[in-house]
Specification:
With 999 residues, the protein is of the alpha/beta class. The chain has helices at residues 21-30, 43-55, 122-133, 137-144, 148-156, 159-170, 173-207, 212-272, 274-292, 294-339, 342-474, 500-538, 544-559, 564-567, 572-624, 630-698, 707-710, 712-715, 718-757, 763-833, 842-865, 902-923, 943-960; strands at 2-11, 14-19, 32-37, 82-89, 92-99, 108-113, 116-119, 145-147, 870-872, 885-888, 893-896, 931-935, 963-968, 979-984, 992-997. It contains 23 helices and 15 strands. The strands form 3 sheets. A 6-stranded antiparallel beta sheet has the order 2-1-4-5-6-7. The protein is flat and about 210 Å long. The model has no long low-confidence stretch (mean pLDDT 77).
C-alpha cells in the first residue's frame, strides 16, 4: 500500500491540513523522510488519520474516534471533521472519505475505486479494506507504525512479562486459554467422578443393598411374588364371574314371575274396556265425514258474507262516482279563468327580475362601503406596525454593532493577554538565564577545586598503595637473592616499616566521599550547562529591552479595555462564545424583522391598490342607482312577488286537485267493475255448495247445516280419538304377546334350573338362594380387594427398584466414561502445561517459535545497525527460561539484552520492531507494505551510530521499495534526513504541515 493523498479537517490539532499527491510523490522518490515537530504538534496524528480513514478506529485502544475532533472547529461552523485518504494498491487507486459523528450527524464513509463509487455502507467497506490489506485494524497498527517503546519492553522485561508482550503482539491468547480450559476440565472431571461415587452410595442406601447384583436379585424376587399374586387373582375373578352369572339367572327368573303377574292384571283391565272403544269407533267414522265436508260449510258462510259486503260496496261506489264527476266539472271551469291571466303574470315576472337586479346593486354598495372601511382601518394598523418594526430594526442594528465592538475588544484582550504571557515567560527565562550563568560560574569554580583535590587524593592513594606493596615485598627480600621488582641482589635501603594500611583506608574513604561530591557537582555543572543551552535556544533572537517595552505597551493598551476581561481570562472563551451566540441571535432577529418590514410594505401596497379598486366600483354602482331609492324598490318587489306567488299557488292547487280527482274517478270506475264481476262469481259458487250440502243431508250424515256448528269442537279431537282407539288395541295386542313370551321364557328356565339344582322355582326359596349367592360374592370381592392392594404394593416396589436400577446402570456407564476420558486429558494437559521432559508449555513453545522467526529476521537489521557487532541468539529461545540474549562479536561472548547501553538498546529495539513487522506480514500472507512509520527513540544514538542507522534505513528503503517515515521531536535529527515533513504548532488556527528538502 502506497499513500497518494491525505486531507485532514477538524481532526486532532489540525483545523485544515493536507499532504498533496506531489508531496507524497516526492516522499516516495526519496524513500526516507523525517516527520518532525514539537511534542503535541500532531506528528502521530497523521498516522491516526490514516488508521481512522481505513478502519474507523483510533490508534490508542479505548479512545473513541469522536475524541479526536479538533477543538479549533468550535469557532468554524462551516468546517465538518473529515479524513480523505487516497492510496495505491495492486495497480489500482483507492480513495476513502470518512466523517466521524458530529453535532447529531451519524458517522458516514464512502470508498471509491478508480474514481468510481464502490460503496457507502460501513460493513461493506470494512470487509473490502480487510480483503485488500489482509489485516484488521489491530494488525495494521503493528506493521504500519512501529512504536519503539513497546518493543523496548521486550528487551528489558522478565520472562513472564516478555511472554505477555509477545502474546499481545501475536494474539496467542487461544493457546494459554487452551491450557486453562484443560486444567478446568480435569478439575471438573474429578469433581464429577466424586459426585458419582457419592450418588452410588446414596442409591445403595435407598435400595438397602450392598451392590448392583443384589439389587437385580431383589427385583427378580419381587417379580416372582407379583406373578403368584396375579395367578391367585385370576382364580378369584373366575369364581366371582361364575357366582355373578348365577345371581343374574335367579334375579331374571324372579323378574319373569313378577312380570307375568303384572301383565295378566293389565290384560284383564283392557278387556273390560273393549265395548266402550267400539262405540267410539262408530262416532269417529261420522266425524271424519263431517271433517271432509267442513270446507263446503266454511265456503258457504264465507260467500254469504262476501255477497252481502259486495252489494253494499257497489252501492257506495256508484254514489262516490257521481259526486266526483260534479266536483271535477266545477274545477275545470275555475282553471280556465286562471289560465286567462297567464300572459299578465309573465310580464310581472320580467318586471320583478329587472327590479331584483337593481336591488343587488344596493346590496353590493353596502358591502363595498363596509369593505372599504375595513381596508382603510387595516392600512392604518399596518402602517403603525411598520413604524414599530423600523424602530426595532434600528435598535437591533445598534445592538449588533455594540456586540461586534465587544467581540473585537475581547479578541484584542485575549490576544494581548497571550502576548503578555509569552513576554512574561521570556522575561522569566532571561532572569533564569542570568541566575544560571552566575550559578554556573560558582559551580565551575567549586567543581575545578574538587577535581584538583580529588586528583591529589588519588596520587596520595597511589603512593600509599606502592609503599604498602613495597613494605610487603621487603619482608621477603634476602641478600644475594634478586628483587622481584628491580632484579638487584643488593638491598641497601629497604622501606621502613609503617602503618600504610590504616592510612590507605582513610584515604580511600575520603576519596569515595569526594568522588560522590565531585559527581554530584559535575552533574549539577552539566545540568546547568544544558539548562543554559536550552535557555539560549529559547531566547535566541530575543531582546530584553524590547520585551520590556512591549510589555509596557501591552499593559497600557490593556488598561484602556474593560477590566472584566482580565478578572478570569480562562472564561474569556466562554464569554466570546456567548457574544457570538448573541450576535447570531441578533442577526437572526434582524433578518426576521427586515423580512417582516418587506412583508408589511408589500401588504400596505396591496391594501392601497384594493382601496382604489373599491372606490372605483362604488362610483360605478352609485351612477347606476342614482335615480332610485331603496324603500321604493323593496315595496314594489314585495307586491309583485306576492301577486305572482298567489297566482302560481292557485294554479298549482287547481291543477293538482283536478289531477287527483281524475285519478280518483278512474279508480272508482275500476273498483265498480271489479265488484260486479266478483258478485257474479260468488253467486255461481254459492249454488254449487248448496247442492253438495243437500246431498249430505239426504245420505243421513247431516240433520241440518247447523250440525257443522254443534260438532265443531269435537272435529278438532278426531286425531286424539283415533290415537286413543289405536293405542288401546296396540296395548292389548302387546300385552298378549309379551305375556306369551314371558311364560315361554319361564318354562325354559324351569326345564333348565329344576333338574340342575333339584330345587323348585318357588319365589321364597329363590329369594333365600339369591341372598346366599350375594354374600358369597361380597366375600370374594373383599378377597380380590386385598389381593389388588398386595399386587399394587409389589408393583410400586418393583417400579421404585427399577428406577434405582436404571439410575445405577447410567451411573456405572458415566463412571466408566470418566475413567476412560480422565487419563487422556491429564496426559494432554501435562504436555500442554509444560509437565514434560523439557519443562516448556505449549503456549511458551508457540511463542518461542514466533520469537525465533522474529529474531531470525531482526538479525538481518541488527547486523547492519551495529556495524556487524551484535546478533540475537536464535537457537536458545526454545527453552524453559526463555532468556533473550545477544552475541557480541567484539568480546566473543553472549549477554542478556537488558545489559545493552541506551544506544545499543535502541538499535536492538528497532531491529526487533522491523523483524516483527516483516514476520506479521509473512504470517498473514498479506501483500508487502510500501510504507512504514517508526515512532521516536533516535535521541539515544551517538553521531556515528545515528549516521549509520539513517544510511541503513535509506538502503533498506531503496532495496525493499518501502517508504520509511521516522517520527521524532528532536531538532538535531533534521539535518540527517534528505526530506523533513515539518509539523508546526499554531495556537489560533491549528497545526500545519510543510515539506523541507535537505540537498
Amino acid at each position: 500500500m502506497k499513500p497518494l493523498y491525505l486531507s485532514i479537517k477538524g481532526f486532532g490539532p489540525y483545523l485544515k491540513a493536507e499532504i498533496k499527491e506531489d508531496d507524497f510523490k516526492f516522499l516516495t522518490e526519496n524513500k526516507l523522510f523525517l516527520i518532525s515537530g514539537e511534542i503535541g504538534a500532531g506528528k502521530t496524528t497523521i498516522f491516526d488519520a490514516i488508521v481512522y480513514a481505513l478502519y474507523g478506529e483510533s490508534t490508542i485502544e479505548g479512545r473513541n474516534p469522536a475524541d479526536l475532533i479538533s477543538h479549533f472547529i468550535k469557532n468554524k461552523p462551516n468546517i465538518i471533521p473529515e479524513i480523505n485518504f487516497k492510496f495505491f494498491l495492486d495497480g489500482k487507486t483507492y480513495q476513502i472519505i470518512r466523517r466521524p459523528s458530529f453535532k447529531g450527524r451519524a458517522e458516514n464513509v464512502s470508498l471509491w475505486i478508480e474514481n468510481k463509487l464502490f460503496s457507502a455502507k460501513k460493513e461493506e467497506i470494512k470487509a473490502k479494506i480487510k480483503e485488500l490489506i489482509g489485516l484488521d485494524a489491530k494488525q495494521f497498527k503493528k506493521v504500519f507504525l512501529i512504536p519503539q517503546g513497546e518493543y523496548r519492553k521486550i528487551l528489558i522485561a522478565k520472562k513472564e512479562e516478555r511472554e505477555n508482550l509477545l502474546e499481545t503482539i501475536f494474539e496467542t491468547f487461544l493457546f494459554s486459554n487452551l491450557e486453562d480450559f484443560l486444567k478446568n476440565k480435569i478439575k471438573d472431571l474429578k469433581e464429577l467422578y466424586q459426585s458419582l461415587n457419592e450418588r452410588e452410595e446414596d442409591l445403595k442406601k435407598i435400595a438397602q443393598v450392598s451392590n448392583f447384583e443384589e439389587l437385580k436379585n431383589k427385583i427378580e424376587e419381587l417379580e416372582r411374588k407379583q406373578k403368584d399374586l396375579e395367578n391367585k387373582l385370576k382364580f378369584y375373578i373366575l369364581k366371582k364371574e361364575k357366582i355373578e352369572k348365577e345371581i343374574k339367572e335367579i334375579e331374571h327368573i324372579l323378574q319373569l314371575q313378577r312380570e307375568i303377574k303384572e301383565l295378566s292384571e293389565k290384560f284383564e283391565n283392557l278387556k273390560s274396556k273393549e265395548e266402550e272403544i267400539c262405540i267410539k269407533k262408530e262416532v269417529l267414522k261420522k266425524l271424519k265425514i263431517l271433517k271432509e265436508n267442513l270446507i263446503f260449510y266454511e265456503n258457504f258462510e264465507k260467500i254469504k258474507i262476501e255477497l252481502k259486503n259486495n252489494h253494499q260496496k257497489k252501492k257506495n261506489l256508484a254514489k262516490n262516482l257521481c259526486q266526483i264527476e260534479k266536483i271535477l266539472e266545477s274545477l275545470e271551469i275555475e282553471i280556465k279563468e286562471v289560465y286567462q291571466k297567464e300572459k299578465e303574470i309573465e310580464k310581472k315576472k320580467q318586471e320583478l327580475q329587472t327590479l331584483k337586479e337593481l336591488e343587488k346593486r344596493f346590496e353590493e354598495k353596502e358591502i363595498l362601503h363596509k369593505n372599504l372601511e375595513k381596508v382603510v382601518e387595516l392600512f392604518q394598523k399596518k402602517a403603525k406596525e411598520l413604524e414599530i418594526i423600523k424602530e426595532k430594526i434600528n435598535t437591533l442594528k445598534r445592538e449588533v454593532e455594540n456586540a461586534f465592538e465587544e467581540k473585537d475588544q475581547l479578541n484584542r484582550a485575549t490576544f494581548l493577554l497571550k502576548e503578555r504571557e509569552i513576554i512574561t515567560e521570556s522575561l522569566k527565562a532571561f532572569e533564569e538565564y542570568e541566575k544560571s550563568i552566575s550559578e554556573l560560574k560558582t559551580t565551575e569554580k567549586k567543581f575545578k577545586e574538587l577535581k584538583a583535590y580529588y586528583e591529589n587524593l588519588e596520587n596520595l592513594k597511589r603512593d600509599l598503595e606502592i609503599k604498602n606493596s613495597a613494605q610487603y615485598l621487603a619482608k621477603f627480600l634476602k641478600e644475594g637473592e634478586p628483587c622481584p621488582v628491580c632484579g638487584s641482589i643488593f638491598h641497601p635501603h629497604p622501606i621502613k616499616t609503617g602503618n600504610f594500611i590504616e592510612e590507605l583506608k582513610r584515604r580511600e574513604k575520603e576519596l569515595l566521599e569526594k568522588k560522590e561530591e565531585l559527581e554530584k557537582e559535575e552533574k549539577r555543572f552539566f545540568s546547568l550547562q544544558a539548562k543554559i543551552e536550552n535557555l539560549e535556544e529559547i531566547l535566541q533572537n530575543k531582546d530584553k529591552e524590547k520585551l520590556n517595552k512591549d510589555f509596557e505597551n501591552i499593559e497600557k493598551e490593556l488598561s484602556n479595555l474593560p477590566q472584566k476581561y482580565f478578572q478570569n481570562p480562562t472564561k474569556n472563551f466562554d464569554i466570546l462564545s456567548e457574544i457570538e451566540k448573541k450576535i447570531k441571535n441578533l442577526k437572526t432577529q434582524l433578518n426576521y424583522f427586515e423580512n417582516l418590514e418587506t412583508k408589511r410594505r408589500e401588504e400596505l401596497e396591496n391594501l392601497k391598490k384594493e382601496e382604489v379598486a373599491l372606490r372605483e366600483r362604488l362610483n360605478i354602482i352609485e351612477e347606476l342607482i342614482k335615480n332610485y331609492s331603496s324603500q321604493e324598490f323593496k315595496s314594489k318587489i314585495d307586491y309583485l312577488e306576492r301577486e305572482i306567488k298567489e297566482w302560481e299557488n292557485k294554479k298549482g292547487e287547481l291543477e293538482n286537485n283536478i289531477r287527483l280527482l281524475r285519478e280518483e274517478k278512474i279508480k272508482t270506475q275500476t273498483q265498480l267493475i271489479n265488484i260486479k264481476e266478483s258478485i257474479k262469481k260468488d253467486l255461481q259458487e254459492y249454488k254449487k255448495i248448496i247442492k253438495k250440502l243437500i246431498s249430505l243431508k239426504r245420505e243421513g250424515f247431516l240433520s241440518s247445516i247447523n250440525d257443522f256448528k254443534t260438532q265443531a269442537s269435537t272435529l278438532s279431537k278426531i286425531e286424539e280419538i283415533e290415537e286413543e282407539i289405536s293405542d288401546f288395541f296396540n296395548e292389548l295386542e302387546r300385552i298378549k304377546e309379551r305375556l306369551k313370551e314371558v311364560k315361554n321364557n319361564l318354562e325354559i328356565y324351569k326345564k333348565k334350573w329344576e333338574p340342575l339344582t333339584q330345587k323348585t322355582l318357588e319365589e321364597e326359596k329363590l329369594y333365600s338362594e339369591l341372598e346366599l349367592k350375594k354374600n358369597e360374592k361380597r366375600l370374594l370381592e373383599e378377597a380380590l380387594g386385598n389381593l389388588n392392594k398386595d399386587i399394587g404394593r409389589v408393583e410400586k416396589d418393583i417400579l421404585h427398584f427399577q428406577e434405582i436400577l436404571i439410575a445405577y446402570e447410567k451411573l456405572i456407564k458415566d463412571k466408566k466414561s470418566l475413567e476412560d476420558e480422565y487419563p487422556f486429558l491429564e496426559a494432554l494437559y501435562n504436555i500442554i502445561a509444560g509437565k514434560n521432559k523439557k519443562g516448556v508449555s505449549f503456549h511458551s513453545f508457540v511463542l518461542s517459535l514466533f520469537a525465533q522467526l522474529i529474531l531470525k529476521r531482526a538479525n538481518f537489521y541488527f547486523k547492519e545497525f551495529s556495524f556487524g557487532r551484535y546478533k540475537f541468539i536464535e537457537d536458545e529461545v526454545l527453552q524453559k527460561k526463555f532468556i533473550l540474549e545477544v552475541f557480541d562479536h567484539y568480546t566473543g561472548s553472549k549477554r542478556e539484552t537488558k545489559t545493552l547501553s541506551g544506544g545499543e538498546s535502541f538499535l536492538a529495539t528497532l531491529s526487533l520492531a522491523l523483524g516483527t513487522s516483516d514476520v506479521i506480514l509473512y504470517l498473514y500472507r498479506t501483500r508487502p507494505f510500501e510504507s512504514l512509520f517508526i515512532d521516536e527513540g533516535f535521541g539515544s544514538l551517538d553521531e556515528n551510530t545515528l549516521e549509520k542507522v539513517v544510511n541503513t534505513l535509506l538502503n533498506l528503503a531503496h532495496h525493499s521499495g518501502r517508504i520509511i517515515g521516522i517520527i521524532s521531536h528532536l531538532k538535531e535529527l533534521k539535518d540527517k534526513f534528505p526530506v523533513v515533513l515539518e509539523v508546526y504548532k499554531n495556537q489560533f488556527s491549528g497545526s500545519y504541515i510543510k515539506i523541507n528538502k535537505n540537498f
